[in-house]
Amino acid sequence: MRVRGKSALANGAAAALALLAANAAFLPAALAKDSRTSNTAPVSSASYATQAPIVMLNDMDSGAILFSRGADKRFAPASMAKVMTAYVVLDLIKKGELTRETKFSVSEATWRKWNSGTGGSTMFLSPNERVSVDDLLKGLITVSGNDAAAVLAVGIDGSEDAFVKRMNVVAANIGMTSSRFGTPNGWPDGGITKVSAADLITLANRLIRDHPDGYARYFSIPKLQYGISPDGRPIVQANRNPILGRFDGADGLKTGHTSEAGYCFLGSAERNGRRLIMVVAGLPSAKARRDEAQRLMEWGFAARANAATGQARREGASASRAAGATHR
What is the pTM assigned to this prediction? Predict the structure, then answer.
């Protein structure tokens, strides 16, 4: 593991406040019913209407697929790839090979490559600054920092390419059979980085199960204050998660957007001890992504509640018939 750099250097004047210049990618849309072939049969027979070309909704506890469309189609995940980076880092912490207090230096080369001038998301790191793994994970997940992902990669393995090799090994080990990563942050790379919705569900499931403390610590931070604006004020950015604070029980995971991928979201919510994990991808706008995510989650929890209510009624009716037969 390599740690480079010696001193922190304030460079707030270099931080621009414009975060993303994004063009929506319109992908085909239609109405769909559950069509994924799975070893676990869907638990709901109700249809769900969606404009998203890629959708998957999973009940984590039972493993049931509540809805699926295009779940095995490989697509560019954009910043959702950062969940894979987070998993790798949390795994190293769990194994004792890394600590949250470890500090990595922001090299000039990394800063030039991933500062706000690229048009991508950033946590506004400064060149030669030394930053803890804890803060980098917060910047990676809360504000989708491309710079945070790169600093973690270089700090851990010496280069982004070396870290990406680690990502792919770990992805294969946890069962992400359709995925390949080319960058630690999901930046467009000529079609190398591809995932499937089914693999993203697997990744979220493993992260939540394998690293529950890390998930609770990093994935539901409402906002992050880091960096200084040109006028000297602290930079505060809101969490990119479109349903965090809007949907009861929402607590992770990660959005993504590029012109190639459209607007995407890997999300999770827990209500009454039951957790759902969802993927939507290829939506035409941030609003469409937010509305679709919230509507899908509402539908999923309602479908489970209706199924449970129906089952309870059937069991109650059976018990009543049995009792009647006993007294005849």
Answer: 0.81
Sign of CA dihedral 53, 86, 192, 20: positive
Residue tagged active-site, from 121, 144, 179, 268: 144
Q: Quick check: 170 and 87 in contact, CB under 8 A? A: yes
pLDDT in tens, 254-308: 999 988 889 999 999 999 999 999 999 999 999 999 999 999 999 999 986 555 4
Q: Which of 82, 138, 194, 254 is catalytic?
A: 82
DSSP character at residue 116: G
| Lookup: tokens for 222 | 């409402």
79 is catalytic: yes
In this structure, the number of other CB atoms found within 10 A of the CB of residue 232 comes to 8
d(CA 15, CA 170): 34
Q: What is the pLDDT of residues 220-265, one digit of tens each?
A: 999 999 999 989 999 999 999 999 999 999 999 999 998 888 999 9
Task: Please name which of 18, 115, 74, 77 lies closest in space to residue 260, comparing C-alpha atoms.
Answer: 77
144 tagged catalytic: yes
H runs (alpha helix) in the chain? 82-94, 108-114, 133-142, 146-157, 160-173, 197-210, 212-218, 286-326
Q: Which residue in 68, 79, 105, 220 is the catalytic one?
A: 79
Confirm whether 82 is a catalytic residue: yes
Cβ atoms 79, 254 nearer than 8 A? yes
| CA gap 138, 167 in Å, rounded | 19
Three-class secondary structure of residue 58 per DSSP: strand
Domains of the chain: 52-326 (3.40.710.10)
> What count of Cα atoms within 13 Å lies in the side-chain half-sphere of residue 119?
8
SS3 per-residue string spanning 157-223: HCCHHHHHHHHHHHHHHCCCCCCECCCCCCCCCCCCCEECHHHHHHHHHHHHHHCHHHHHHHCCCCE
DSSP annotation of 233 reads P
